[in-house]
Structure formats: C-alpha cells, structure tokens
C-alpha cells in the first residue's frame, strides 16, 4: 500500500455550483426522491446520506463548501 496524501479540490464558482446542484437534483429525481427535501436535509444536518450515490451525486455535493453553497442559494433567491 502506498503512503500518499489525497488532494481535496473544492468546487468554486457560481456557474459550477449551479451545475453541481442541477446534476444532484437530476440524480435525486431519477431515484424518485424529492430533491428539495433531500438537499435541505443535507444542508441542515451535514449528513451526506441525504444525497444518493447515484451518478456520483453525493461525491459532487460533498465537494461544495456548505457555507458557499448556502451563500449562493440565498443570493440566487434574492436575485443578487
């Protein structure tokens, strides 16, 4: 077994965050989950099991900084 450190690269940029949320939403819908409820559950609890592994949705959303994600959601809602 090799001894190495993995690099974590968070997702940044408004367009990229939007694209990740759309992909996660699509994966949740394909698995017949309510995407709004599941994403809110994830944001409130920080528990990634609210997000399906289908199409790597959990991995994608976990790469987003939660504070940045919340900031972008509120900005988008307010049109800022």
Give the terminus-to-terminus CA distance: 49 Å
Number of helices: 4
Count every beta strand, where a strand is a DSSP E run of 2 or more residues.
0
N-to-C SSE string, H for helix and E for strand? HHHH
Spans of at least 5 consecutive residues with low confidence:
none
Tally of separate domains:
1
**Strand percent estimate:** under 5%
Q: Please give the radius of gyration in angstroms.
A: 14 Å
Given the helix and strand composition, which structural class is it?
Answer: mainly alpha
Q: What would your notes on this structure say?
A:
It is globular, with a radius of gyration of 14 Å. The chain has 4 helices and no strands. The mean pLDDT is 90. With 80 residues, the protein is mainly alpha-helical. The protein has one domain (14-74). The protein starts with 13 loop residues before the first helix and ends with a helix.
Task: Describe the secondary structure blueprint for this structure.
Blueprint: H1 14-30, H2 35-45, H3 57-62, H4 66-78
């Amino acid at each position: 077994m090799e001894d190495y450190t993995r690099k974590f690269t968070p997702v940044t940029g408004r367009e990229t965050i939007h694209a990740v949320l759309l992909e996660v939403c699509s994966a949740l819908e394909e698995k017949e989950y309510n995407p709004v409820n599941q994403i809110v559950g994830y944001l409130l609890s920080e528990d990634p099991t609210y997000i399906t592994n289908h199409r790597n949705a959990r991995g994608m959303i976990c790469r987003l900084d939660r504070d940045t994600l919340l900031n972008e959601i509120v900005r988008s809602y307010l049109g800022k």
